[in-house]
Amino acid sequence: MKIKIPSNNGETFSAYLKTPTSTPAPGLIIIQEIFGVNEVMRNIADEYAQAGYVAIVPDLFWRQEADIELTDKSENDWQKAFELYQHFDENKGIDDLISTMKTLKELPECTGKIGSVGFCLGGKLAYLMATRSQAKCNVSYYGVGIEKNLDEAANIQNPLILHLAEKDEYVSPEIQSQLKIELSNYPLVTIHSYPNINHGFARIEGKDYNLEATNLAQSRTIEFFQKYLD
């Protein structure tokens, strides 16, 4: 179902919400890729709801174009996605995620314990949720641009996982090495690297989808959420 979330400027934006059969339950914010709140993101939310979480996927592109849905199957969609990404304001995106967290906490179906999991653009934002919000735990899948905000790592107060794709065409080996070295100083951060795996490996039916890597990352992520949210 769709719900409306009040932003901090008085406007509202939409979010896809899926609740588990048994409530109250912990909350999970699913943070979108550059393709918007599309079928892939909704399916991920559905899976987390089946696993026992109140899953919500906020529309973070609403300030540019509300409720847009793109795929990785079309060149036109790729161009549109990159255009949205280039004009996206990360700081306002984090504001919207914190507004989402507030709304989620107030739902009777939610216990009030909330984490986040993000992919691509959302992977960067999951890192920023770890540095700027009170989310209990956060998971980043192949986040792009984290190195630009490593100066915020000292603000991390709750556990964070980074899933890195070794052959990520958007995160160079040099940057991945930098992340591993600089974040090794922070015991709340765990980095998992997936050899010979490309960006987007967990996007089901995507061009670089990898079942083995997805299953391994998912098992680590679920174990992590069970430890810190349940």
TrEMBL record:
GO terms for molecular function: hydrolase activity. Keywords: Hydrolase. Pfam families: DLH (PF01738). Residues 13-229 form the Dienelactone hydrolase domain. The keyword Hydrolase applies. The keyword Hydrolase applies. This is Dienelactone hydrolase family protein.
